[in-house]
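Troubleshooting entry. The earlier prediction with iron/sulfur cluster gave an output that would not parse, so I re-checked the input for stray whitespace and re-submitted. Clean input:
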Amino acid sequence: MTPKFTEVFNNLNWDEQKISIYSKTEDDVLSALKKSNLNLEDFKALISPAAESFLETMAQKSVQLTRQRFGNTMQIFAPLYLSNVCSNICTYCGFSINNKLRRKTLTDDEILAEAKALKKRGLENILLVTGEAPKTVGATYLKNAIELLKPHFAQINMEVQPLIGKEYEELIDAGLHGVSLYQETYHKGCYEEHHLVGNKKDMAFRLNSPDALGQQNIHKIALGVLIGLEDWRTDSLFCANHLRHLQKYYWKTRYAISFPRLRPCEGSYQVKHPISDRGFVQLILAWRLFDPDLDLTLSTRESQSFRDQICKLGITSMSAESSTQPGGYSDESTKHLEQFEIDDDRTIADVSAMLKKQGFEVVTKDWGWN
Ligand code: SF4
């Protein structure tokens, strides 16, 4: 039987891994920079403080690898929030059940209205997003939404609660292409501190859910950590271990990494472990050098000027004109239902124009699929 990720995870000690990263030297970084097939020790070196003085070299290599693998393309997508109902309390999220927020779950007509609004903007690739509320937005609701949207979009992806294998199988049969499933943090104590109520408290279930997706031969799995919850270097190393585990057993699946940075939201969460912009760039470069085939996604959580500057360094897909509220594209009255504030609020047309000016060919469909 294929081992699940928790079997790897349970043998990784957070403190030892952290010390190992912070002990890397400039020689370790230089050695990683000379290689074409990088291992986890090389990744540690590239995310370590020792690599901070090599960002220019890392950037040149990252740009070269990205162009070789992806050409000059940049994929654009937008999230479609189906519901802000959630049964969980996550201390950092505006959708937590304890936040006083008007709750809304889109009806079939409202889903189609959102689809129409996104199609008008030229998008072929959407990401369905919900809170975690199995009774309201469980597999049956999601299957219906995918079936409604399938005729209108080339690719449908989702970022929702973890499901079981049978449910994933049904959704893939209905037309689901990819799933984003972020662990948030791989630090056990921090995970418990921030996930107070609901199914998300079960850390092991979340850790093993990408295995359930891989077993169903899903086209694409996106992993990531919520940057700001714990030490970003150590969390990213755990995520790299997670990626290597999945790639070993589910080699037909493509993989993506996202770098969501904590943003202000309803509630009062203060970011305890912020990353600097320079650290954020180092992280993107390290991922690209670690795995040239990865899709690397940059969200509208980042500012307009920052996105414009760093999109050339290894990023392959960007969200644009994101509304983080259900009904946000077609219904003006849905203001104040949002999950978090976005920073780059330009339209898809404006982001596309910026990318074209930088020499990118903008694609609204993920050509790497099918
Ligand atoms: S992060 Fe997800 S599960 Fe947690 S409160 Fe927000 S929507 Fe719900």
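This one parsed fine. The radius of gyration is 19 Å.
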